[in-house]
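task queued by scheduler; priority normal; single chain, no ligands, no partner chains; default sampling; output format set to structure tokens
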Amino acid sequence: MGDRKEARDKEFQSFVIGRWPRLLRTAFLLTGEQHAAEDLVQTTLEQVYVAWRKVGSADDPEAYVRRVMINAHARRHRRRLKEFLAPRDDSGLVREVADSGDRISQAEDRNALLKALAQLPPRQREAVVLRYWEDLTETQVAEAMGCSVGAVKSNAAKGIAKLRAIPGLSEMVTSGGRT
């Protein structure tokens, strides 16, 4: 029994090490604040660890973890709207966890974009972050958010439209996302 637990722990640790930067970036884009992002990832991983036997054998463990993260994020938002206040200067985190090809790392005005994301309603923000920055398909986003593909399309379109309406972000959003 101890060997199985040790093997499970090693498998979970390997998963976390391989996915940490992406999970943290997604959480940061959802919460808009470094400490809230770290808390969200920690909460998510605690929940996933308890169910790792089931999660680790799933077809797509990362999709399962994203779904847990979205659900945890939604619960936090319902409890405390403070999670969605404009971000502080956390641009270093974006640089630290961003992929070299990541559009947000190339943006001239990261803070303006992050503040704009923070102003979106939660479902629009989730759809925009998962669809355009995490580059998930509409089906994957719908799975992660627990809604229909139509709801994803609607929320993403409304969120992108709101971002494009902000002076100075129009060009960034148009060139950085799918049009």
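post-processing summary
- The longest helix spans residues 2-31.
- The mean pLDDT is 79.
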